[in-house]
């Protein structure tokens, strides 16, 4: 065994570093702090000046946004005129409201004699009778939707009365379809068919006029 013992390994002390290096690091840190402080002092007046100029350039803002002002006016009864759709029945004459359409499901059926006249229409041999009925029903629905007042339904009133009085055996097999009609026209249809109190179902009354319109269209197209 050797008589010489190795000394224990000890980590070097920071004090063992060279004094010159320690002084250089301290000077570097102090110079950076001084530069940062000087730069911050220079930027402070510029930031205040830019904020003041920005406030001077901005336009004056109203105390209340326009939307909130409009809502406040409506709450106080200063809003615009009411919508035509929301007008009551007793609205002033100067206020115009849109006509009201009603949606109905009616049974479109023609008299048997009228269906037999489809063969006399030009081009009837190229399509089926069912196709022709759908075509005339489409035109009749468009005409029904256009009718507004009593004077417009009167040309179809006589044919509608005749169809309304027919028995089921004199009518062809019908097809249910959706139609639209003006409320004023429906009231006039009830009156024209002798139902001023509107006891009969609206679908029955409107269906009679739909068949009458289609019958007149067929009569106008057939070859005599």
TrEMBL record:
Domain of life from the UniProt record: Bacteria
Comp. bias regions, Low complexity: 47-59
Ranges annotated as biased composition (Basic and acidic residues): 30-46, 65-78
Region (Disordered): 1-94
Keywords: Plasmid
Compositionally skewed regions (Pro residues) per UniProt: 81-91
Name the UniProt record assigns to this protein: Uncharacterized protein
Organism of provenance: Neotabrizicola shimadae
Organism taxonomic ancestry: Bacteria, Pseudomonadati, Pseudomonadota, Alphaproteobacteria, Rhodobacterales
